[in-house]
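User: I'm curious what two different proteins look like when written out as structure tokens. Can you demonstrate?

Assistant: Sure. I'll show them one after the other, since each token string lines up with its own sequence. Here's the first protein:
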Amino acid sequence: NGEEMTEDEWKQHYAKCLALELTGNAILEHNAKNELIRDDNFIWFLNAAEVDVEFTFPKTAKTNTWQLVFDTSQEWPKEQKHIDPSQPIIVRARSTALLMQENSAHH
């Protein structure tokens, strides 16, 4: 549903899918030159279930533009594939998909 998981949801024995939002522009560490470390933002969808799963993007990601880095249920992308975050994304059974926010680094 695009919301953060509750404590009870983490404890469900049958939960076989997960989405992680990795925000590289929220890193609070500095490099050797004392510059704030920045990286791209990613959303990683993991589906260990035996059925396809529909994921909703988190609210924080719906205003951004995303591109598919890879989807293990498909051939490696030969060209950039843009993903509309206002629509759910289907992740095939027993597969994973990684999306990168366009123009996210150093913002």
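Here's a second, unrelated protein for contrast:
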Amino acid sequence: YYIYITEHDNLLSRNLLTARSYASQIDAFINRYNSIAETLSFSQMNYNARSRKEVLNYLEQIAYKDKYILGSWVIYEPNAFDNKDKKYRNQPGNDELGRFLPYWNRL
């Protein structure tokens, strides 16, 4: 009985250590990609892109730099990017009103 209890306690301790190790790895993974998303958001708020194509190229670079990032996107308020939404109606990376909402993916 003593051996059973001891082994049971050892097993629980090892499992707890393993679970904590995995949780730590997952936490680091999530924090890394959360930081990337926050950086993308901040960069777009403070970035004066010259063209919509420039933003598409930027999103492409983000998606290709890391194998775990399958896609990247930003969504602008109507006419917030360059005040030319009417010109871009139904174009790739824009909606039916021309609002700029580009999405890039590796799939």
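A detail about the second structure: The mean pLDDT is 90.
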